[in-house]
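Per your request, structure below.
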């Protein structure tokens, strides 16, 4: 368990761009990670509150492909997702908060984040288990829903027609954890995929 100082927050990056290219990432002109590949996460790293500059370059290049400034609030946990703007090949960074929502006793929390290239509305469920993620917003996360600990198959479907687009078998979910299921891919070379992660609010806690 990590206990940060009062003005510290935490940030990790997620490469959700469906491409074989690797990238170097700079934060405030200092290299943050190198040879960053599709589906990779960085570890959560401490970051001071305030404005920061993110720059994306091809691996072993210094020519910027994309840059953006973003604001970090005190004592927050973030995931910054690199993806394409919908229906384009333009790079974009999406900053997601990992909030400290209360977990009901003996439960865990799961949410879904849609960073795929599949533009039709999607829903997801753990097979034969409720509740259901009824409509997953594009380039956003759903709210957290609570579940009892389980091992379950996951199905991703289109809201219209209920066609099963993806099945991910035998996913383990442990008590008192926060999970995000990231939906990525959806191109000819990179089909739809669901990536299960444990969010930082599972193990980073701030003194209030």
């Amino acid at each position: 368990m990590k206990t940060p100082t009062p003005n510290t927050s935490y940030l990790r990056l997620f490469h959700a761009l469906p491409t074989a290219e690797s990238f170097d990432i700079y934060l405030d002109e200092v290299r943050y990670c190198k040879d960053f590949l599709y589906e990779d996460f960085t570890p959560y790293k401490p970051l001071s509150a305030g404005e920061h500059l993110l720059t994306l370059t091809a691996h072993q290049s210094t020519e910027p492909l994309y840059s953006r400034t973003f604001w970090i609030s005190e004592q927050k946990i973030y995931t910054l997702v690199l993806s394409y703007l919908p229906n384009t090949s333009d790079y974009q960074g999406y900053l997601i908060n990992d909030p400290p929502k209360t977990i009901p006793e003996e439960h865990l929390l799961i949410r879904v984040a849609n960073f795929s290239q599949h533009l039709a509305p999607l829903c997801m469920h753990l097979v034969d288990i409720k509740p259901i993620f009824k409509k997953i917003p594009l380039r956003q996360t759903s709210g957290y829903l609570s579940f009892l600990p389980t091992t379950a198959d996951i199905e991703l479907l289109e809201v219209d027609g209920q066609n099963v687009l993806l099945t991910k078998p035998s996913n383990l979910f442990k008590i008192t954890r926060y999970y995000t299921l990231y939906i990525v891919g959806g191109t000819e070379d990179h089909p739809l995929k669901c990536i299960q992660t444990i969010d930082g609010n599972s193990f980073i806690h701030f003194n209030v």
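The mean pLDDT is 93.

Regards,
D.
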